[in-house]
Amino acid sequence: MNLTIHRGTHEIGGSCVELATENTRILIDIGLPLVDEEGQSFNLGNYLKLSKAELVERKIAKDIPGLYKKDNDNKPPDAILISHSHPDHYGLLTFVKPQIPLYLSEGCLELIKATYYFKGINPDLDTVVIIENKKSISIGDFIITPYLVDHSGFDAYAFLIEAEGKRIFYSGDFRGHGKKRSLFDRFIENPPKDIDYLIMEGTGIEGKDCYYEKEEDLRDKLVTIFKENKSLIFFACSSQNIDRISSLYSACRRSGRILVLDPYTIYLLDVLRRRAPKIPQFDFKDIRVFFTSDSNTRRLADDKTLYKYKESKIAYDEIKEKKDSLVVKPSYGIRKAFAKNGYIEGSTLIYSMWSKYFENEKPFWDEYGISPMHVHTSGHAGVTQLKEFARALNPTTIIPIHTLSPDRFPEYFGSKVRMLSDGKPTEL
Description:
Elements: E1 2-7, E2 16-20, E3 25-28, H1 52-57, E4 79-81, H2 87-90, E5 102-104, H3 106-119, E6 128-130, E7 137-139, E8 142-149, E9 156-163, E10 166-170, H4 181-189, E11 197-201, H5 215-228, E12 233-236, H6 242-255, E13 258-261, H7 263-271, E14 287-289, H8 295-302, H9 316-322, E15 326-328, H10 332-340, E16 348-351, H11 362-366, E17 373-374, H12 383-393, E18 397-401, H13 409-413, E19 426-427
Parallel strand pairs: 3-4, 4-5, 5-6, 10-11, 11-18, 12-15, 12-16, 13-14, 13-15, 16-17
Antiparallel strand pairs: 1-2, 1-19, 2-3, 7-8, 8-9, 9-10
Helix pairs in contact: 3-7, 4-12, 5-6
């Protein structure tokens, strides 16, 4: 069996792994790079019309035989496994042949469909097979067992892959301090045995061997801030970080505040209702929806979906009356509308994402003299959790992926580490 890490041996984002026997080829993840040629956040819409050759030339995609549309000279892979719904793990799906079976979780599928819906993309998703926790599936020579993991990406999975007498564990992105950290704890207590190769993410390998704040600790910190602060509060986080939005809503309830969300975020929560019935919804007590004037809201209005949320709509009169008891998630449309109506001055901003993302928003808040309070915890495992994970699995070999610093792995995992290079097949 051959292993090829097409991208990820020295990079965070754009993950793509291939495993191949004589009879069967599978890919695990097919992600976009995190940044484009200019070092800016990647905008898929700018690249949809590019050919395979152009994608490869511009280093957006890797040259994988048979994977892309119009490549009729090579046999396609037998399957693509998607670990979770972050674009750096699935973002090239729009370019792949539609007949290739896709294996992913229900929550991952719903978020991918929602993302494409708002971008006006009609993806080919007719070959989707839904995976479930610890339910094994057979694909040619491979037996694959998905493992649900704790991660900031909703409904994320790792994979145990078995073929030709070898057992390979692909960690995907994971952590052990989120709302689903019990998954991590149970995994450590009862891991799969006899692992030959652990392909493990190392996003957090550069950090110190330190404590990562738990999601409920973050929630409790928010409760304190919300109670002590007497102004309108803006809380910036990813709309797809469902755990963080759940923590935010819980903090609002515990502090007597109303949570105001934009239609895009509300729609994402709504489509996940069946998979996760306890997450915040538009019809929950103390949740309001501000109808922004932007392309996402117009798309929902055109499809008549927006009117489903009209009973939860918050108007300017209510904002004025209850301003100091609101917590608002500031989408671009909300920032623009609230600025126009004088609701930015004197407010408080809490930033709950990677601090470097704030650089793009900083000029707006600087205009009003507002500096953010950073209240965040990582979506990835730190060094302590990486060591626990590797110790539990006790693999013969550890292969770094999804990391800028594979050279740090031997510092923590010693002679077990085998560093690979992008695009070079390795016999297992």
